[in-house]
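Usage

Read records sequentially. Each one opens with the input sequence:
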Amino acid sequence: MALDQKGFLGIGSSLFKQKEKNFVGIDIGSSSIKIVRLVPNRDNKKMQLSDFADIAFEEQVSTDQIKRAVDEALKQTNIPKDSEAVFNIPNNSAITRFIVMPKMNHDDLRKAIGYELEKYIAFDTKEAVYDFRILDDLQTKEGHLKVLLVITKKETVDERVKAIEDAGLIPKVVSIDSVVIPNTFYLNHIDKKDKNIAIVNLGSRLCSISVVKGGISNFMRDIAIGIENIVSLVSEKLEMNKTDIINSIMKPELQSNDFKDIINSVLSNLLNELYLSFDYYETQFETSIDEIYITGGLSQQPGLIDFLSSNLGISVNKLNPLLNLEVAAELKSKIDSKKDIMAVSIGLALEESDLKYF
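and closes with the structure output:
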């Protein structure tokens, strides 16, 4: 939601006409925040990544922990206070639906959806905030619109707004990971716009799938599989601490046979859920997935690309969110190891730019 009531999923801006415009994205994860600042280069009309910070929470995520992390991020970067920022809420705290509505203007559509909210939620509509994005889909019958609807509880948004405001930034737009990651993908892979691309974000607790074509999201699904599944199972069965477990996930030479068995069981569950998701998409849309791009912390697991590609029979690639970004000289040596966890924060920052999608 744009916090000036113009939209949940982002509003446009005149990118290269504004002087010293900053685009700040704050990815609030389950264990840390990732914050980026993008600055337009008017000479070559490209974006420069000028600032980045990754700040771990000291305790379970809360309003106080978010404020503390943003405060620390501002200390570590040159992001000005009073910058406008785009932030996220967890995918699993939002309800997303693809719906078909009669063709009407934007204001009438908002009212019509508001009347039907109770069909999609199990809580009082007075507690809900929602927004939508009209999808230009040729498969929709004449006289109708295909719409992506996103609903969440007002308190979920308000808690994060307060934390960001208390840290000195201006929260402008709120979105969800599945909506903004395509921004990052198309910034770097405009040549793929005519393909059916599955973007799989392998996070700490959730695997989020977005299938896109031509800049339009046609399918979204969240799966409760992530690094935390491995951490929980290993700590329970092998009595290892979290730091050692995460270190071992990325370094197979440190893994015992029992450790490898646990990883393989988690990855097998992931594979099965991806197969079911793609099978549903291909049946629903009568078309196949052309390529898969993976990102997120678990995407760093050695051998994962080959494992998924060989079992799904689809080309699997890493999403490099920095491929088509200029990177400030002082950041280049610091962020190469972080690029797998930057797709969401960059996508959030792009929500306020004219470079989102294509």
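Summary fields computed downstream for this record:
- The radius of gyration is 20 Å.
- The chain has two domains: 15-91+156-188+323-350, 191-318.
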